[in-house]
Amino acid sequence: MAPLHQRIRGAIEARILSGELGPGDRIPFEHELMADYGCSRMTVNKALSALASAGLIVRQRGRGSFVARPRIHMAALAIPDIRETIEARGHVYGLRLVARAEVGADGAEGALLRLPADRTLLSLRCVHLADARPYAVEARLINLAAVPEAGAADFAATPPGSWLLAHVPWTQAEHRITAAAAGEAAGPLGVDAAAPCLVLERWTWREGESITYVRTVFDGARFDLTAHFAAQGMG
């Protein structure tokens, strides 16, 4: 049988992951848990400390412990296909290719892909549409040394992300998600420059070789990001 502190942690974690305890809800006080489990404060503190370290609860001196506001861990996110996402929600997908050019890797673009200065990159800018309305603005760089066939691909007809997922295998990926004002994406998105947006940046590699970098800006009023989780090791 697992140590008592692990069982206390597991019981609270199960209540959080099942939704019984939601963000901001109070966790039972330490003295309540001590009474429930017939254990010492040290045992309860060990369980709560583990939950806090896992990011599931927030401990506040003098107030108690509360379920943490959810944070999305990038490793839990799959590589999204925006066209599939829009169509799965019952909308008509559209694509507008704004710019396409081959550029050297000796500037900021090469730094984003972490490539030597002598490489050539394909730079793409496009707008994804849902029911003919702007849904997201995408700026993408593709390493042509790793994916030479991208140079001949028709990205006015096929979204770059969809094409890459169908044609180019990857072995590693890194996501970064931030919130920001629309800024220069305001015009293509049809929103105010100060409108809240979600910015998704992603890098992919194949056996250590950079494939692509993409920065996608989503209109916060039309986009939600969802990840599904399952409890591990719960009986």
TrEMBL record:
Q: Does the keyword Zinc apply?
A: no
Q: Where is the HTH gntR-type domain?
A: 2-70
Task: Please name the SUPFAM superfamilies in this protein's record.
Answer: Chorismate lyase-like, Winged helix' DNA-binding domain
InterPro entries registered for this protein in UniProt: Bact_HTH_transcr_reg (IPR050679), Chorismate_lyase_/UTRA_dom_sf (IPR028978), His_ut_repres (IPR010248), Tscrpt_reg_HTH_GntR (IPR000524), UTRA (IPR011663), WH-like_DNA-bd_sf (IPR036388), WH_DNA-bd_sf (IPR036390)
What keyword terms does UniProt attach to this protein?
Answer: DNA-binding, Transcription, Transcription regulation
Give the matching Pfam families.
GntR (PF00392), UTRA (PF07702)
What protein am I looking at?
A: Histidine utilization repressor
Per the UniProt record, the source organism is Sphingomonas agrestis
